[in-house]
Design brief:
This protein is α+β, with helices and mostly antiparallel strands and 66 residues long. It has 2 helices and 4 strands. The protein has a 4-stranded mixed β-sheet. The longest helix has 18 residues. The mean pLDDT is 93.
Length: 66
């Protein structure tokens, strides 16, 4: 499954990742990500913004499950 997010909203992205468990997504202004096991995987292009987004979304997912 592939989804494009026009705005970066960590909680919305986290709900999508948690719900579909495996797939790909794209966030405008940030880049493309893959997710597996209900967590965002590190991006292939290692820039600071993408790594920050990955951490924020994974923290949101962790907070949802607690």
């Amino acid at each position: 499954m592939f989804r494009i997010f026009n705005q970066y909203r960590p909680r919305q992205v986290a709900r999508y990742v948690k719900g579909f468990f495996r797939g790909r997504l794209y966030i405008d202004g940030v880049g493309a990500f893959e997710f597996d096991g209900g967590r965002l995987l590190p991006p292939t292009k290692k820039d600071k913004r993408a790594l920050t987004v990955m951490t924020e979304v994974n923290n949101e997912i962790r907070a949802m499950t607690a």
